């Protein structure tokens, strides 16, 4: 049980999960991203003691009814750590970010202009139509055509969360590049 009201990252949560402990932590900050609620641990609202107590009591009741439940939660917590929060994963992310930062800083003006042209071409060829289908914050997503069967499947464009991130990144890159000329 991690009783903090807010924790920016949640190292204690990662350490507990890495020890195989079913973990309860605040639903704010880092622990909210680390734990998948009800799968690899449990989110609790630190401002609501009754709710937190009920969630903990329910967990122990399930452990009493199903002796394998503790191990199931423990294994899921370990799996989450091994997939997302090992030192190797963290070091790789840091090195990649450092490499990208260093790469972009070393480009001279001519190389930047060439990069901007290349990015514009890539944007035009690959993402312009996709970007148009992504709703802006507060907008409703476009409704798919009212066709049925295989035709409906071919016509329906579904923007996945990763594509939305890429589109937003490309939009921001192009805005910055246009502003730096």
From TrEMBL:
- Give the record's GO biological process terms: sucrose metabolic process
UniProt keyword annotations, A-Z: Glycosyltransferase, Transferase
Query: Which residue range or ranges hold the Glycosyl transferase family domain?
Result: 2-61
The protein's annotated catalytic reaction(s) are:
an NDP-alpha-D-glucose + D-fructose = a ribonucleoside 5'-diphosphate + sucrose + H(+)
GO MF annotations, alphabetized: sucrose synthase activity
State the source organism's domain of life. Eukaryota
Q: Does the UniProt entry include the keyword Transferase?
A: yes
The protein's enzyme class: transferase
Identify the Gene3D superfamilies for this entry: Glycogen Phosphorylase B
According to its UniProt record, the EC number is 2.4.1.13
Family, similarity comment:
Belongs to the glycosyltransferase 1 family. Plant sucrose synthase subfamily.
Q: What is this protein called?
A: sucrose synthase
What is the originating organism of this protein? Aegilops tauschii subsp. strangulata (Goatgrass)
């Amino acid at each position: 049980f991690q009783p903090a009201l807010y924790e920016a990252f949640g190292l204690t949560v990662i350490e507990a999960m890495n020890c195989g402990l079913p973990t309860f932590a605040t639903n704010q900050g880092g622990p909210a991203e680390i734990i998948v609620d009800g799968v690899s641990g449990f989110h609790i609202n630190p401002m609501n003691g009754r709710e937190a107590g009920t969630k903990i009591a329910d967990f122990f009741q399930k452990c009493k009814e199903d002796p394998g439940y503790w191990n199931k939660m423990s294994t899921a917590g370990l799996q989450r750590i091994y997939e997302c929060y090992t030192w190797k994963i963290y070091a790789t992310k840091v090195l990649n970010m450092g490499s990208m930062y260093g790469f972009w800083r070393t480009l001279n003006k001519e190389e930047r202009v060439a990069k901007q042209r290349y990015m514009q071409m890539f944007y035009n060829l690959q993402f312009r139509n996709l970007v148009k289908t992504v709703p802006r914050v507060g907008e409703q997503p476009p409704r798919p055509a009212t066709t049925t069967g295989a035709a409906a499947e071919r016509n329906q464009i579904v923007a996945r969360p990763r594509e939305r991130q890429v589109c937003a990144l490309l939009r921001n890159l192009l805005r910055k590049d246009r502003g730096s000329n």
